[in-house]
C-alpha cells in the first residue's frame, strides 16, 4: 500500500516543520530548566513555553528524559562548534595565542549564556544517563585538546600519549574551575581567569613522562 507524501505547508516540507518544532521545544526547555531546574520542569511547562501541544513533544523526544538528553547534546554541540571555529581561526605558529583563542571561546560560550553552564555542568547530577553523556563530552573535549597539542608540537607515538594524559587533567580542571567561578567560590575577573588558564595550558602542554609505560 503506497503512502501519500505530506504536502508542503506555506512553502515548508513536513520534515522542515518537524525540525522547526523540535528546535522550538529545545529552546523552550533551555529557558524553563534555567528558571526552574530540571526536577521542577514538566512536559507541560516546555510545551506551554514553546506554544506547542504535547503531541509534538512526544513526537520529538519520546519522553521527558529525552528532552534533557537532547538538550545536553544540542548545547554541547553548540559549544564544540564555537571552540572549533576559534581554533581554526587562531594563529598556528604561536602557542599562547592559539591557546588563548580556544580558552576564551570556551569560557565566553558558557559565561555569556549561563544556561549552557547549567546544562553542561550542574543540572541533574543524579541522572545516570546524563552523567554518561557528560563523561562522553569531557572525553571528546580532551581528545580535541590532545590532537591540537600533538599537531602543534609535532608529537606522535609515546608523545601523543603524554598529550592525552595532560589533556584530561586540563579539561577536567577547567570544568571544575569554571564551576567554582560560576558559583562565586573563585572571585577573579573573566580576563584573569582566561589569562591564567592560558598560561597553565601552555606551560604543561610540553610535559613528557619519559619512558614510563
TrEMBL record:
Residue numbers spanned by region Disordered: 1-20
Q: Please give the DNA-binding region boundaries.
A: 42-61
What Gene3D superfamilies does the record tag this protein with? Tetracycline Repressor, domain 2
Q: Which UniProt keywords apply?
A: DNA-binding
Q: DNA-binding among the record's keywords?
A: yes
Report the residue ranges that make up the HTH tetR-type domain in this protein: 19-79
Tell me the Pfam families matching this sequence.
Answer: TetR_N (PF00440)
Query: What is the protein's given name?
Result: TetR/AcrR family transcriptional regulator
Amino acid at each position: 500500500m503506497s503512502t501519500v507524501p505530506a504536502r508542503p505547508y506555506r512553502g515548508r516540507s513536513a520534515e522542515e516543520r518537524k525540525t522547526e518544532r523540535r528546535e522550538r521545544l529545545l529552546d523552550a526547555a533551555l529557558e524553563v530548566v534555567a528558571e526552574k531546574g530540571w526536577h521542577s520542569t514538566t512536559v507541560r511547562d516546555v510545551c506551554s513555553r514553546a506554544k506547542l501541544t504535547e503531541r509534538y513533544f512526544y513526537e520529538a523526544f519520546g519522553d521527558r528524559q529525552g528532552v534533557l538528553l537532547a538538550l545536553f547534546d544540542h548545547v554541547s554541540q553548540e559549544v564544540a562548534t564555537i571552540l572549533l571555529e576559534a581554533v581554526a581561526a587562531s594563529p598556528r605558529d604561536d602557542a599562547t595565542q592559539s591557546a588563548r583563542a580556544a580558552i576564551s571561546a570556551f569560557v565566553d560560550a558558557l559565561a555569556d549564556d549561563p544556561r549552557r553552564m547549567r546544562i553542561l555542568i550542574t543540572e541533574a547530577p543524579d541522572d545516570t544517563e546524563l552523567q554518561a553523556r557528560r563523561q562522553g563530552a569531557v572525553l571528546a573535549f580532551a581528545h580535541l585538546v590532545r590532537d591540537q597539542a600533538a599537531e602543534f608540537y609535532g608529537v606522535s607515538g609515546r608523545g601523543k600519549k603524554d598529550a592525552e594524559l595532560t589533556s584530561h587533567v586540563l579539561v577536567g580542571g577547567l570544568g571544575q574551575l569554571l564551576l567554582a567561578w560560576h558559583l562565586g567560590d573563585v572571585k577573579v575577573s573573566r580576563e584573569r581567569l582566561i589569562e591564567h588558564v592560558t598560561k597553565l595550558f601552555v606551560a604543561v602542554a610540553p610535559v613528557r613522562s619519559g619512558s614510563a609505560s
